[in-house]
Amino acid sequence: NAGVTQTPKFQVLKTGQSMTLQCAQDMNHEYMSWYRQDPGMGLRLIHYSVGAGITDQGEVPNGYNVSRSTTEDFPLRLLSAAPSQTSVYFCASSWGQGTNQPQHFGDGTRLSIL
Amino acid sequence: AQTVTQSQPEMSVQEAETVTLSCTYDTSENNYYLFWYKQPPSRQMILVIRQEAYKQQNATENRFSVNFQKAAKSFSLKISDSQLGDTAMYFCAFMKHARDDKIIFGKGTRLHILP
Question: How far is A102 from chain B (nearest CA, A)?
Fold first, then answer.
């Protein structure tokens, strides 16, 4: 059971480039989400999905797009990378949206924008 | 590899009581950070408190305090005078110092504050 798999683990981009962070889970979880972790701050929710075909914005959605074409995959796209998007990104999944369901986190993607 | 273990999947306490959430971790590092995150129904992960391993003094934030036992690799969270708004999932997390930003989370403890 692989759990939540994020790729790549590290990435360096130039300002203006685009890229997609991949997230896949093999637990048939309905709920998936993307967070960013910045020094001295808690995880901030970027986008989330309550099921295939459904996505919604979190706290800091600007500059990011998501899609949920399958239950397993929830990619995060940076449209035009900016230095302010340098961060560590975490994908998470759970059975449902309520807090009674534990979240499973991926290992994170460390992204640097030059 | 570092691991973080939260042995209490779920807890319930009465409002105004004090509750302690357990966390143990395993690492060979000497310098690192430890965190407690709260996740309310909004799903946002809120940083409750953090501890730097080189500091012996336990961190405190209002009603939240930690008992950091470095030798025992234990990092428990105490919530005093618990409130209904404290109901949430709580995650313990570990991060190596400085250059490695990877955070390792425990599985979480679901805390219910009962009226």
Answer: 6
Task: Name residue B95's beta-bridge partners.
Answer: B33, B103
DSSP state of A73: B
B92 or A105: which carries more pLDDT confidence? Answer: B92
Q: Are A42 and B43 in contact (CB under 8 A)?
A: no
Q: What amino acid occupies position B44?
A: Q
> Whats the size of chain A, residue-wise?
114
A108 touching chain B per CB within 8 A: yes
Residue B89 is predicted with a pLDDT of 87
Short-list B68, B32, B64, B24, CA closest to B48: B64
Query: Residues of A with CB below 8 A from B41's CB?
Result: 98-99
Residue type at B29? E
Distance (Å, rounded) from C-alpha A42 to C-alpha A36? 9
What does the pLDDT average to over B59-81?
A: 96
Closest CA to A35 of B50, B6, B43: B43
- Looking at residue A103, its pLDDT comes to 66
For residues A26 and A72, is the Cβ–Cβ distance under 8 A?
yes
CA distances from A48 to A68, B21, B61 (A): 9, 28, 29
Query: Is the minimum CB–CB distance between A27 and chain B shorter than 8 Å?
Result: no
Query: In 10 A of CB B75, how many CB atoms?
Result: 28
